[in-house]
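RECORD TYPE: inverse folding
INPUT: structure tokens
STRUCTURE:
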């Protein structure tokens, strides 16, 4: 016999009664602190209405994520057995890449079983650099083609390479991609009016805190949820920039890649709008290098955020007219809009929270309080489902919660910077293309720059203002924000020694 005793916890009745009385007051309006400044009621109501709308958007995005997380499991299917005699061209665009990086990419492909295929390296480098590449690749199965007029974005280079490729089927890879063993067989399985995507996972050439965080997010949020979750529910998927296969005839029919930074999502939208589709072909994913430097990550994430906003501005009306079920149209919209909405809600919620603390709003009205509780419950559910995905790989619940908390802190710290790129994308303004540095070169990008100094200074000034107002709620919020930003800059974004 084992006697089990439980700890008796007694809560005084007056504490319960006072808590219920405070909550009951929220039915009439917000509960404010005693020394709250006087603010016009219309301004307070407007702020609370905006905050309510932001919470609704955040809940929608969280539910959208959890739905696919529940279906995130390895996809099963018979391995493709397409004809091996269909000519295949593997196209790799390069610009300002190290010669060794390009040589290693071709060597990886040379080790695969891939009959009747060619590797085309399309270079936007100066003539002497292209000649150096051609010399370094001598003896390897690859052709180096240099665009005579290397202007525009990556999509323009890909379209030019397509016209010089010999294959009927085209496979597009980034130079840092590690291909799966069945790369060519799965690429040749693409249908006549399809764009095939082979899936993505990440690897890191350098161990840093930002790389470790990205590897976690790539595997359990991108590969498992955004790709496998969508595939298993039968909802539309979108191709990412490496590991895309398409027949040359269909690519020409949809107009090729756009001369913009959002070439991968744009070609996916063109496929759907033309009556075709994007398919995920189950199997080992293409491994792509995650930027291990904070500066490189910030630029890459800004470009991805801009791309989604640009595509949303370009195709928002046409998405509603897609000839597919309503649930699929909603899925396409949320797929495109997730990054812009996530950035805008994060930034706007931060601003609204600071404003409400300045107004002395301790508790918002009951309907907003209920929304906050619902969002917290969904955040816990999200953590639970990610834990279920990560548990077989040896990740504990505390580790998963820590990774998601770091991701949220990083998103919060970058939200002002990324909001600027969202607005550029929605206005369809051009941005400069930065080639993401690879290997040890990422450590040269550094962590702290003008943006980090400016945001830290602004939050320090906000904290000083809060002390001047003697508003303890305002002080608490300003201090918390400053600590989160400093944690990200000094801990999450810290570069480690190369290993």
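DESIGNED SEQUENCE:
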């Amino acid at each position: 016999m084992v006697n089990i005793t439980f700890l008796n916890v007694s809560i005084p009745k007056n504490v319960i009664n006072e808590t219920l009385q405070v909550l009951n007051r929220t039915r009439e309006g917000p509960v404010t602190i005693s020394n709250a400044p006087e603010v016009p009621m219309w301004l307070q109501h407007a702020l609370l209405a905006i905050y309510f709308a932001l919470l609704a958007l955040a809940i929608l995005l969280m539910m959208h994520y959890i739905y696919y997380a529940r279906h995130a499991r390895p996809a099963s299917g018979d391995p493709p057995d397409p004809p091996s005699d269909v000519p295949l061209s593997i196209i790799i665009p390069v610009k300002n890449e190290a010669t060794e990086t390009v040589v290693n990419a071709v060597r990886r492909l040379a080790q695969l079983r891939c009959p009747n295929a060619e590797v085309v390296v399309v270079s936007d480098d100066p003539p002497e650099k292209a000649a150096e590449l051609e010399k370094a690749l001598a003896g390897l199965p690859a052709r180096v083609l240099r665009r005579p007029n290397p202007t525009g974005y990556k999509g323009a280079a890909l379209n030019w390479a397509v016209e010089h490729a010999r294959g009927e089927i085209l496979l597009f890879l980034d130079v840092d991609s590690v291909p799966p063993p069945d790369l060519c067989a799965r690429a040749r399985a693409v249908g006549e009016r399809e764009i095939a995507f082979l899936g993505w996972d990440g690897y890191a050439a350098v161990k840093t805190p930002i790389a470790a965080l990205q590897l976690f997010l790539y595997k359990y949020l991108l590969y498992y949820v955004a790709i496998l979750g969508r595939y298993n529910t039968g909802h539309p998927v979108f191709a990412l920039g490496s590991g895309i296969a398409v027949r040359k005839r269909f690519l020409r029919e949809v107009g090729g890649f756009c001369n913009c930074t959002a070439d991968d999502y744009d070609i996916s939208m063109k496929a759907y709008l033309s009556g075709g589709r994007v398919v995920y072909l189950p199997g080992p994913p293409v491994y792509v290098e995650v930027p291990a430097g904070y500066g490189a990550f910030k630029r890459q994430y800004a470009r991805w955020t801009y791309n989604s906003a640009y595509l949303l501005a370009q195709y928002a009306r046409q998405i509603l007219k897609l000839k597919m079920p309503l649930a699929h149209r909603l899925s396409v919209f949320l797929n495109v809009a997730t990054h812009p909405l996530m950035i805008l809600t994060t930034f706007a919620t931060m601003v609204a929270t600071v404003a409400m603390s300045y107004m002395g709003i301790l508790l918002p009205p009951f309907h907003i309080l209920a929304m906050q509780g619902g969002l917290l419950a969904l955040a816990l559910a999200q953590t639970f489902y990610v834990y279920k995905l990560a548990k077989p790989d040896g990740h504990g619940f505390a580790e998963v919660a820590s990774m998601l908390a770091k991701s949220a802190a990083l998103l919060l710290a970058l939200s002002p910077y990324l909001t600027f790129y969202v607005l550029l994308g929605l206005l369809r303004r051009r941005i400069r293309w930065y080639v993401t540095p690879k290997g040890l070169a990422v450590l040269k990008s550094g962590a702290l720059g003008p943006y980090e100094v400016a945001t830290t200074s602004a939050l320090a000034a906000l904290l000083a203002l809060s002390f001047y107002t003697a508003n303890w709620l305002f002080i608490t919020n300003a201090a918390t924000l400053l600590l989160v930003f400093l944690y990200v800059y000094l801990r999450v974004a810290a570069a480690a020694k190369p290993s």
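NOTES: Residues 328 and 370 are 30 Å apart (CA to CA).
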